[in-house]
Amino acid sequence: MKIAVSAAVLGFGIAAVALSGCKRSNEATTTSASAPDATAAATSTVSDQDISDAYLYLLGRLLVLRQQQLDFNKEGFKWNEMIHRDVGGVAWANPNLDVAYSEAWVAVDERSCTIFSVPKIEHRYYTVQFLNGWGETIANINERTYPDNPAGDFWVCMKGANVQVPPGARRIDLPGRSARVLARVELGANPREAAALQHQIKVRPSGTPTTAAVPATPDFQNDKLPGAEAFDAKTVEAALAEPDINPGMEEQQAKVRAVAQAVNDPAQRARVDKVIREQAQPRMKEAFAKFGTFRDGWARPDVAGNYGSDYVARTLVDFGGIWANNREEVVYFKTNTDGSGTPLDGANTYTIHFPKGNLPSDHARYFWSVIAVDSEKFQVIPNARNRFLLNNQSKLTPGPDGSLTLYLAPDKPGDAPDANWLPTPKGENYHLTFRMYGPDEAVLSGQWFPAPIVKRK
Question: Of 110, 122, 225, 444, which shows the fewest CB atoms inside 10 Å?
Answer without folding.
Answer: 122
